[in-house]
Amino acid sequence: MVLAELGSAFLLASLVLVVLSAGAGVVAGRQGDGPLASVARRAFYAAAVGLVGASAVLLVALLSRDFSLAYVFEHSDRSLSLPLTAAAFYGGQEGSLLYWALLLALMGSASIAASAAASIRLTAYANAVLAGIVAFFLVVMVFVASPFSLLPAAPTDGLGLTPLLRDGGMLIHPPFLLAGYSAFAVPFAFAIAALLAGRDDAAWVAHTRRYALVAWGLQSVGLVLGMWWAYHVLGWGGYWGWDPVENAALMPWLATTAYIHSAQVQERRGTLRAWNFGLVIAAFLLSALGTFLVRSGILPSVHSFAVSPLGPWFFGFLSVSIVVSGAALAWRSDRLRSPLAVEPGASREGAFLLQNVLLVALTAAVLWGTVLPLVSGMTGRELVVGAPYYERTATPFLVAVLAVLAVGPLLPWRRVRGGWLRLLRWPLAAAALTLAALVIGGVRQPGALLALPLVAAGLATCVAEYGRGAAFAARLAGPWPLTAVRVAARNRRRYGAYLAHIGMLAVAAGLVGSHAWQQTRQVTLQPGQSVTVGSHTLTYEGIGTRSETDHTALIARVRMGDETLEPGRLTYPSLGGQAVTTAAIRSTPLDDVYVVLAGADGAGAAFTVYVNPLVTWIWVGGALLVAGVLLGNLVRPQPQEERAPAGLGATVAAR
Amino acid sequence: MTWIAAALLLVLAAPFVLWPVFRREEQAPVPGGEEPSS
Question: Measured between alpha carbons, how far is A148 from B16 in angstroms, rounded to an integer?
Fold first, then answer.
């Protein structure tokens, strides 16, 4: 009772503060009024503190099992472990809204505090946009879906968390993905602010790029963890189902990947201004669309546990965001004309532009597939596309992106002036060797024959660039390891980017390998019987049951070499007998053996066995991708001295 | 109850939030007052 009142009071006070912050921000932005901008910032910080207070109250209510709160009653029960009980904070509708608003308030506070000294008007407008977005979430929580609603009488136990979410993945995947979603609002706020304040120069890009990288990094981690979780929990042998909600998370990531690259063109050459604004704004709008799709339940999805009647609210939010962004872009369209056009012909900026066009086209294809049921439903005949559509559509784009990734880093800015063979000798050699090895090895799948040589070419490009940096370091005074570290540190953005590229190549290899060479068998075995899938022989040894606090587990024992795999089925009596599978997975760098227990009766135990080659590469690649971006951008850009030569292209062009 | 608690929280936050405005008022030159010595 007291907790509910206190939590609601924190939300209400925060709402008043963000409304004040938004109003003061707009006026300060228009007038360039420093003290008023400071009031706007302080009101935003205070609202963030209020949201921390509300979150603390909800956590206390969950951990103290205060079932008088409807949210605690609906999303936890006494059998739930403490970590999962704490995770129920974002496991339901109202709590995830609070979590989202909290993260946005904290990240927004950090970004406006870091930018306050740079420009009063820019930061005041950004502050106003961020406050407006947080205000939307607070309005929803205060007036429509409060996490602090009380039940008429406190039950003795709660309904509990849905079984699929009772997993360790619940502790890491949603926090990152929700953080990624909310983080896209920060570069968006600064983009709109730059438009309103008339700051469309390269300094704006350098500023926003940092926040875009944070959002992109969080979303990358969220996506990879989501794939990993789906792979471990859903028991269908795959990691990406082209589910509408997965697509919704992928689209802003693709748009921001494009922006991270095109921002460099603006920083270096002053072009692509309107394009960059468009990408940052599109990333946010796509994340808002994703939220609308998840919350409205308008599309069938594996994430349907998050469905609620809040769809119209999010639709309204999305519509207002589109109108505001479109109006700001249209208002400043004259100023956004680039002073220089990208020169025709092959060049670094040309490669960036091509990569951007490919990623945006891929985003559009995914968007079309995702919203097709909605659009076609309006005409009376609902059309739905599945994985084959996405795979057919996405594969050519991904292959082309791999080719750009192999060639682009070697091209000089402005224009290549001859010397192509010398420029591209390493990636060409690597691609030719890999193709020959694959053909000799008996590989005949066109996808693998096309993509894996490109992966090798991209890797050769990255290694060649690292080699060039190492050779440069060897020419400097001092012992080589120290000079190499110094050169790497001073050029960390570039070398971090190559590490991220290597990560992306590993992910691509994993995607290709697991698609081209996956093997599956469904068998029913008696104890002692064996099945061979690929080069692996599995022997079924027997089955047993285990009782845990909140479920009973049917666990099979399957021997593979020296190891015992234990696929199982968990049944939750307190949740109406809902059952989930737990796949047993044996991973090596070469392949995963993935065993699912489909059922068991007197006739034996039914298994589905998958052999998934190179899946581990996806997880390792995802980690490298994020590590590369983190290492390259943790601190401010390096000074100009001791820059390593910018690739072979520079020397070729200089002739 | 919620409204009262929210109002109390806002009263607590007010000095922090509005401080820049008070400071501006304090620092504004008083009409007819003396020039501050350098």
Answer: 27
| Mean pLDDT computed over A540-569 | 90
Averaged pLDDT, A496-521: 94
Inside any domain, residue A39: yes
Does residue A149 sit in the same domain as residue A23? yes
A544 and A594 assigned to the same domain: yes
Residues A509 and A551 in one domain: no
Q: What angle do CA A72, A74, A78 make, to 5 degrees?
A: 65
Which of the residues A42, A44, A51, A127 would you substitute to probe the B interface, choosing the one with the greatest number of B C-beta atoms within 10 Å? Answer: A42
User: What does the pLDDT average to over A363-369?
Assistant: 94
**In A, which residues are within 8 Å of B13 by CB distance?**
13, 17, 43, 46, 49-50
Least confident stretch, A411-420, A563-572, A640-649: A640-649
Using the beta-carbon criterion (under 8 Å), do A39 and B6 form an inter-chain contact?
no
* From A39-53, A317-331, A339-353, A381-395, the region with the lowest mean pLDDT: A339-353
Mean of the per-residue pLDDT values of chain A: 88
Number of domains in chain A: 3
Give the DSSP H or E segment for A645: none
Structural domain boundaries, residue A20: 1-166
Which helix (DSSP H) or strand (DSSP E) does residue A582 occupy? strand A578-582
Indicate the pTM of the whole model. 0.88
Confirm whether A290 is domain-assigned: no
ipTM for the predicted complex comes to: 0.78
A513 and A538 share a domain?
no
Q: Are residues A56 and A160 in the same domain?
A: yes
Is there a single domain that holds both residue A539 and residue A507?
no
Q: Is the pLDDT of residue A639 over 50?
A: no
Instruction: Name the interface residues of B facing A (CB cutoff 8 Å).
Output: 1-3, 5-10, 13, 16-21, 23-24
